[in-house]
Design goal:
Distance between the termini: 20 Å
Strand order of the largest sheet: 2-1-3-8-7-4-5-6
Radius of gyration: 18 Å
Shape: globular
Number of helices: 10
Helix content: 25-40%
Strand content: 5-15%
Largest sheet: 8 strands, parallel
Order of helices and strands: EHHEHEHEHEHEHHEHEH
């Protein structure tokens, strides 16, 4: 049986991480400001949260002087900058995990999870991770076709990147995630190598086929049962998990995704479990689809956050 959880002036911090170095589009750095200006603090305060907005974490000033290039044969674009950025993200997030605080993290692209999730698992080692995404993000520099690092965070976090600490910028990094720590929901665009890796490691994964077959209610019941012995759950929500009909402003949109209500139900169920203690929302790109008002995707993002933080229909 799931238990309900009321918001009684619990404290949270809004962390803006406008990193866009893990992929080629430039608009993702606008997303945190757009979401906050769309009424995020008022939404959260109205639910009952005590909200602290942190200064944004910017990445323009990292010095790559003297850092070696990525070794020959590997593809990892902006590796040194991403690595040093994720070290700063790790330290920034770790500080926000103290004293029962709820870190709400706004990206930015999904490579920020190399820093955020490693910090959350350091602070809360028992945490389970619900990874809601159209993509598995479990590529690595050895086999990536594009070299875009937003497709690699799970591989880094699980220690699937050989000698990751020897890559430029990643000298600080230690993998802290076990395959049994992760549940994927909403997968529908995977490379063949990623499919093989997920099966080989036995990662619990629900594709859109499973969403259609089982329904999102059953999937969330199974997910929460799978994490029944976990004290904490972290939600890593890539907006491209939602079908582009509802959230078109993302650089990696794939048709056939979660509906607006399915996405919100995932967030509602995690809140009602009483175990959700951190969340990140990533890959919102207001610069995409300029012919469509970006408020459509921003409003979807705000609704997802509200559902995860306790906003109820009734």
């Amino acid at each position: 049986m799931r238990r309900t959880f009321a918001v009684l002036r619990k404290k949270m911090s809004i962390a803006s991480i406008p990193m866009n170095l893990g992929q080629p589009n430039m608009g993702l750095d606008q997303a945190p400001t757009k979401i906050i200006d769309g009424g995020l603090k008022e939404l959260l305060g109205g639910i009952g949260w005590g909200v602290k907005q942190l200064p944004p974490l910017y990445f323009d000033s990292f010095d790559e002087t003297g850092l070696p290039p990525v070794p020959a044969g590997l593809k990892a674009k902006n590796c040194a900058h991403v690595g040093k950025g994720c070290k700063a993200i790790h330290d920034y997030t770790l500080e926000q995990c103290k004293d029962g605080n709820f870190p709400l993290i706004l990206g930015g692209d999904h490579c920020i999870a190399i820093g955020t999730v490693s910090a959350i698992k350091q602070a809360r080692p028992n945490a389970g991770i619900v990874w809601v995404d159209a993509h598995a993000d479990i590529n690595n520099p050895q086999r990536s076709v594009s070299g875009n690092m937003h497709g690699m965070p799970v591989a880094f976090l699980m220690g699937l990147v050989d000698n990751a600490e020897k890559l430029p910028g990643f000298e600080w990094f230690k993998p802290r995630v076990d395959p049994k720590d992760v549940v994927y929901i909403g997968l529908r665009d995977l490379d063949e190598d990623e499919k093989i890796t997920i099966r080989k490691l036995g990662i619990k994964a629900y594709s859109m086929y499973d969403v259609d077959r089982l329904g999102v209610g059953k999937i969330m019941d199974e997910t929460l049962d799978y994490f029944k012995d976990r004290k904490d759950i972290h939600l890593s929500f890539d907006i491209d998990a939602i079908d582009p009909f509802y959230a078109p402003h993302t650089g990696t949109a794939v048709t056939g995704g979660l509906t607006y209500r399915e996405g919100n139900y995932i967030c509602e169920a995690l809140f009602m479990s009483g175990k959700l203690t951190s969340m990140e929302l990533v890959e919102v790109d207001p610069a995409q689809h300029l012919g469509v008002e970006h408020s459509k995707t921003i409003d979807c993002a705000l609704t997802l956050i509200g559902s995860a933080m306790g906003k109820r229909i009734l």
